[in-house]
Amino acid sequence: MSGTRTLVTGRGLVESPRWHGDRLYFSDWSAGEVVAVDLDGDSEVVARVASLPLCTAWSPEGRLLIVSSPDGRLLRLEPDGSLVTHAELGQAGWNDIVVDGRGNAYVNRCGFDPMAGESFRPGHVHLVTAGGAVRQVADDVAFPNGMAVLAGNSTLIVADSYRHQLVAFDIAPDGSLSGRRVWAELGEGTPDGICADEENAVWYADVPNRCCVRVAEGGKALQSVALDRGGFACALGGADGRTLFVVVAEWQGMTAADLVVPGSGQVIAVEVEVPGAGWP
After folding, report:
1. What are the structural domains of the chain?
2. What is the pTM of this model?
């Protein structure tokens, strides 16, 4: 479509796009790298972590937090480029992360390992406070994926891929969650990574349906971007917040030797009308 361009090609399973400063940061799970790219397509590796999944978020203080899934740690990138432990999550298998405007981090975890062929168990969401304390704040999310906090720090949205829903929670001042509800029924839509905009609509990337869709509360589709391969996650950013970045790759299956076709990972940029808001 018009207004679409490709910033990065030749990558593996790309995920977790996050706009910060004047660059987009994303993870290449296949390479175990966190990469920063500017709008001219110039990129550099900013961190290497042997983790799959490999998701990130920026704190209000401008520190990059990285989920190290196999050893159950939340890492922090220091100014000198070193990685230190920000919090001990306590077990392996963590997936996505979002940090709200108060510095509270929400990290989710699947209840089973689909890549190992384990039987299904629902997943959950944990809170990591700004002080590093960890506690569970939600459960029974069939397959928790992307998360976003709407502007105002009062609502957390969690993508439940298996139930084809976006689920919402009210956020208390201490970071606790309550008021669980289905925010959007997506029909055949399978949400992975998500982001929100100024109109409190949510964009979700969809791997099997090869698209990125903007929906209102309730599930009405407002806009759709067709993709030529699976859409794993999305983020709004750019100078005016009106660039939708989508990380895409050719999906091969959860139990395939390579989850995506090697070298098929890309970062694309699409100009949209409504700027991003909230977190990430």
Report:
1. 4-271 (2.120.10.30)
2. 0.95
